[in-house]
Design brief:
heterodimer, A: 258 residues, alpha+beta, 4-stranded mixed β-sheet, B: 121 residues, Arc Repressor Mutant, subunit A, 2 domains, 3-stranded antiparallel β-sheet, 15% strand
Chain lengths: 258, 121
């Protein structure tokens, strides 16, 4: 579905605008492909420092061990000079922010790294950029149809675009759950991922609370206000959803082991 | 750092800093340089329920207030953030007094002069 909707939009643009549509499609497609390759070659930022094996042996060895279990080539690991706890992956690389090391212990950091290894194993690091660039293409084509298309084409194009956003959100969430599932299979202590997510949720809630109230306390802030977020087009599941699924998968895994 | 409020009912630096931030600063003025993990170990003794996240957020908040400075350190155990104090406790207290007196002079000039001259006597 995630690929079918852009295909339908492309067909509609060509049908509606003829040669101009084909030209628009070729130029925006070309520009996005160029952007894809340019972005790919510039992803190693100045604030990203490669992990030194000697300095952080536990991290290097831990990630190598988890990669072997996941049957993938060990990724290159970078540390990001950012005090906000964060982790992400691209290509065969994992980035962990220094803030992560302040709020999680070694087990928690390896759990977060295992989630990123899950993304690499599931080929999300290749898929996500494609989904993102397809989104840009959908935006461009929908914009063109809204400006130049017939009334029927305008309505259809808008419906296709909204359907794509909803589908993209569902797709991305599914991949997050799938990465968690892959992590649970390779971790020494599968529930360490649950504990790490609980700590990260606590951090986010507390930080939001400190920002709003300006009064730091030991207690976590109230849960994030769900009304301010659009569940329909969110690309990340909430911590609560992920924790609930982790508990479910852990039970299934335990059952399978027994 | 210029205090934005002064709590008349609190003692010491708690009058201008929230209690946990004040505890962290008291400790930081003693040790001068520490990681969030080291401060967490110290704070845990006083507040057993405190979490690593709380200490990290508060220390970064103190950085935003200009009381602490964060630098990347490459030492044993790998890279990490190290926090250091930017002023001495005495300088901080001087700043607080100056800010409060400036505010009093701007808002209640006559009364402040009158009171200060009475104090001199």
């Amino acid at each position: 579905m995630i690929y079918l909707l852009p295909a339908l939009e492309i067909l509609m643009v060509i049908h509606e605008m003829g040669r101009f549509g084909a030209l628009l499609l070729a130029s925006s497609g070309g520009a996005l492909t160029l952007m894809y390759f340019l972005a790919g070659s510039r992803k190693i930022g100045k604030r990203m420092i490669p992990v030194d094996r000697e300095e952080m042996e536990w991290l290097h060895e831990g990630i190598t061990r988890l990669s072997k279990r996941a049957k993938i080539k060990p990724p290159k690991v970078y540390l990001l000079d950012d005090y906000i706890p964060n982790a992400y992956s691209f290509g065969n690389n994992i980035v962990l922010s220094l803030g992560l090391f302040e709020v999680l212990d070694e087990e928690g950091i390896l759990a977060v790294a295992a989630h990123e290894l899950g993304h690499i194993k599931n080929r999300d690091t290749r898929l996500f950029p494609i989904v993102m660039y397809l989104r840009f293409l959908m935006m461009t084509l929908t914009g063109a149809v809204l400006l130049l298309g017939s009334p029927l084409a305008k309505v259809s194009s808008l419906i296709l675009y909204i359907a794509y956003e909803v589908e993209r959100s569902k797709f991305m969430k599914k991949r997050e759950f799938k990465a968690d599932r892959a992590a649970l299979k390779i971790l020494d202590v599968p529930l360490s991922l649950k504990r790490a997510l609980e700590e990260l949720k606590y951090y986010e809630d507390l930080r939001a609370s400190v920002k709003v109230n300006g009064i730091p306390s030991i207690e976590p802030g109230i849960d994030r206000d769900e009304r301010t977020r659009s569940r329909l087009i969110d690309t990340h599941p909430s911590y609560e959803e992920r924790i609930a699924r982790i508990l479910m998968y852990s039970n299934i895994l335990n059952f399978q082991i027994k | 750092m210029k205090p934005h409020e002064f709590k008349l009912t609190e003692d010491g630096i708690r009058a201008v800093l929230p209690p946990l931030e004040a505890d962290i600063m008291e400790h930081m003025w003693k040790v001068r340089v520490a990681t969030a993990g080291q401060v967490y170990e110290y704070m845990k003794k006083k507040h057993p329920e405190i979490r690593r996240s709380t200490v990290s957020i508060l220390m970064n908040r103190l950085c935003e207030k200009g009381l602490l400075e964060r630098t990347v350190d490459r030492g044993r155990g790998g890279m990490r953030y190290v926090y250091s104090v930017t002023t001495t406790r005495e300088e901080f207290e001087e700043n607080v007094v100056k800010s409060i007196l400036d505010a009093l002079m701007n808002n209640f000039r006559e009364a402040t002069y009158a009171y200060l001259s009475k104090m001199k006597k």
